Amino acid sequence: MSYDKSSTRHQISGQFRFVTTKSSLLLAEVYEEAGLPLEAYKYLKEYQKLRKESDQKDEASYLADVEIRSTIEKEEQEKNRLKQEKLQQSQHILAIEKQREIDGLKAQAEKQLLESKAEQAELDKKLDKERLEAKALQNKRQQDYQISLLNLDIDTQRKVRTGLLGGLALFALFVAVLFRQNHVKQRFNALLSKQKVEIERQRDQLDHTLTELKSTQTQLIQKEKLASLGELTAGIAHEIQNPLNFVNNFSEVSTELVTELEEERHKPQRDTELETELLADLKANLRKINHHGGRASSIVKGMLEHSRVETGEKRPTDLNALADEYLKIAYHGLKAKDKSFACELVTEFDPALEPLETVPQEIGRVLLNLYNNAFYAVAQRASQTHHADYQPTVWVSTSQVAGKEVVRVRDNGTGIPESVKSKIFQPFFTTKPTGEGTGLGLSLSYDIVTKGHGGTLLVESHQGEGTEFRIELPTYKG
């Protein structure tokens, strides 16, 4: 600490000498220009004197700094040596304890081996005894079996006689039953014909109901797509509005600069420096206008690229750009509907991620749905909690792991209960209030990722803490 203070004092003193020396030189130049050579000579001598003293003190300060650094380096070396000795002692003690533990395990193993041999001898005695008992039991069973065969032969002869008498009775009963079954069959055929007509009527009714259900499902899917389109439109409008605002602002400022420049040029005595400054500002504004105009143009170009008619054909897609673009669109779309909504966005994109074969419109729809769900969750938690330190946050990251490109969307919202987690990918299932969700968003997203791209859509959630959705897409082509 003393070394640091000493160094600081040297630094402050050096700065003061530098300022004093510089001031003497400036005063000498001022007096010389004013035509006062004696005063100029006085301050010039003062400057030379201070300059000489400064050089001597700088040399002494340098030597002191060298000595301080040498002392600190020696102390660090001594600390490292003591730390190394302490580490070696700890390792030696640990080795002794390990050897004691190994000796104890060897003694325990020898004891268990002796006990095992004694148990084996006792087990052999029991097995011999059981073999003798089993042999005696087998002899007794053979005797009982021979006796049972004799009794069975007697019973068989008795049953044959009884069977002949019973057969005659059964034949008579069979004839009676056959007559009755023929009558029942006729009644059953009539009933079957009636039921067949009813079944055909119900089948036609079910076909009609199924057609209506398919039509309703198609309408709901279209509604979900239109809802996504509305959110996209709001986000795109906000994205374009920002650069347009910059263009308008810089255009107004540039107009004022042009007016000021024209006024300056009509003056009898023109200020060329001011004109040059105004022209430089005007050029800077024009560059900014061009930059923000290009930004708006790139946004429109990107949206036109993603809004092309879906052909279902996959093409190389930059997942980093796609995830970032739809994140901004989703956020600004929600801000356009709810001005009070605020959320921190954290992105961590893998720069080494290679273009992946996907249908970008479909993956964009999946991302938009996951983003909207995350924003809804943090907004719900913000409205339910009264902690001032709660900051709604949504994290988005990309990575490449084991032949897959992974997109993670995580929030610190309300989380998903365990009883609900297994149902979230089912069609028409939603936890949102009536009118706020169709229940098709996650179902369609799951089908797009799994069936359309051969990937997986996973979810991890803890109620009250947050949720993470993970999109895993294979990197192979096909």
TrEMBL record:
<feature type="transmembrane region" description="Helical">
    <location>
        <begin position="162"/>
        <end position="179"/>
    </location>
</feature>
<keyword id="KW-0597">Phosphoprotein</keyword>
<dbReference type="GO" id="GO:0000155">
    <property type="term" value="F:phosphorelay sensor kinase activity"/>
</dbReference>
<keyword id="KW-0175">Coiled coil</keyword>
<dbReference type="InterPro" id="IPR004358">
    <property type="entry name" value="Sig_transdc_His_kin-like_C"/>
</dbReference>
<dbReference type="InterPro" id="IPR036097">
    <property type="entry name" value="HisK_dim/P_sf"/>
</dbReference>
<dbReference type="Pfam" id="PF00512">
    <property type="entry name" value="HisKA"/>
</dbReference>
<feature type="coiled-coil region">
    <location>
        <begin position="65"/>
        <end position="140"/>
    </location>
</feature>
<dbReference type="InterPro" id="IPR036890">
    <property type="entry name" value="HATPase_C_sf"/>
</dbReference>
<dbReference type="InterPro" id="IPR005467">
    <property type="entry name" value="His_kinase_dom"/>
</dbReference>
<keyword id="KW-0472">Membrane</keyword>
<protein>
    <recommendedName>
        <fullName>histidine kinase</fullName>
        <ecNumber>2.7.13.3</ecNumber>
    </recommendedName>
</protein>
<dbReference type="Pfam" id="PF02518">
    <property type="entry name" value="HATPase_c"/>
</dbReference>
<keyword id="KW-0812">Transmembrane</keyword>
<dbReference type="InterPro" id="IPR003661">
    <property type="entry name" value="HisK_dim/P_dom"/>
</dbReference>
<keyword id="KW-1133">Transmembrane helix</keyword>
<dbReference type="InterPro" id="IPR003594">
    <property type="entry name" value="HATPase_dom"/>
</dbReference>
<feature type="domain" description="Histidine kinase">
    <location>
        <begin position="235"/>
        <end position="477"/>
    </location>
</feature>
